[in-house]
Input
Amino acid sequence: MSAAESGDVRAWEPAPRMRGFGPSIFSEMTQLAQGTGAINLGQGFPDTDGPDGLLKAAANAVGSGRNQYPPAAGLPELRAAVADHRTRHGLGPRYRPEDGEVVITTGATEAIAAAVLAFCGNGDRLLTFDPCYDSYAAVARLAGAELVPVPLAVDGDGFALDADALRAAAVSALARVLLLNTPHNPTGKVFTPAELADIADVCREHDLVVVTDEVYEHLVYDGRAYETIAGLPGMRERTVVISSAGKTFSVTGWKVGWACGPAKLINPLLSAKQFLTFGSGTPLQDAVARVLASSEDCDTWIRSLSCSLQRRRDLLREGLERAGLRTFRAEGGYFLQTDIRSWGYEDDVRFCRELPERAGVVAVPASAFYQGQDSPRWLARFAFCKREEVLREAVARLAGAADALGRNWPGVTPV
Output
């Protein structure tokens, strides 16, 4: 008699590495938005499409028969376009796709997973900055590695590198990889040149591989210049740079990403990646290649999107501040972090569960991104990658909720 036939439920239990993974807080918040009619500022995806030329190119690729498997490393024309695009925009060193230095992936998330699986094994330490994108912890566990969170310090109205904490975490002989995300989700931080130099010093000193998640590389605000750690002395040979079309072209559902680096790092990543998806999205790869290769269409779109997102960031930030909620700088990306204590909350999960009924708006508790035991529970993340009219309505609802609380918030005025 089999275990299933005998009723032994242990036969149906997940493997230990999967225990603790269930429906995420993001799914819960989305369901709350749908059930209450609240405006969803929790999930980080745009509510408008990308450039017309990109969409038409994808349709044309489907119609012309580009619908079978691409090469495992991706379409050659897309690998070339990625390398040329990075060079044109000054995004670090030149990569040679003809020498195996560029690989196309099913989104940046797969590239990150393949990199961690390639370079981390049982007992190895994967360092990352805390808070972090939630897939980092999951893929570390799948690889059998220990995720070591290095806290970003709250510094005025932003977040700052604690170089001493990073050095302490890197001392272990088990430390193998630093997973760096800049512009950073969920804080909106863009690591400064001085901070990147400190990080590079640590990585060279302790011989760490750097996997840098740069999906928001073009979404940097207030005149800041974006810099990749791969461009610093001695870093090209130890760095895998990851990005994607999803954020740059507002097509997050396409899942077309890429990884660039020296062949000695890209080859192991490709070896892992080929057993995850092998390859995907041939017509979408074709379309992204065409738009990346068109400097006029691509660069015009990027400039317009960055300016638009900066306006939307300012709209939401001013509205949150008028509603009595302190915000932190969003120097890049899609998100604003908010201090919820002025509304009488010390628990971000409770705040986000009650906000849809109280204000008709959905946010995400920042604790969902923290891995450290002493992480703050008084931060909530709001997305500003929505249409301006949606953000204006959200701001009006938040102001109404602040008035209804009956407290005398400094600076609160009707919107």
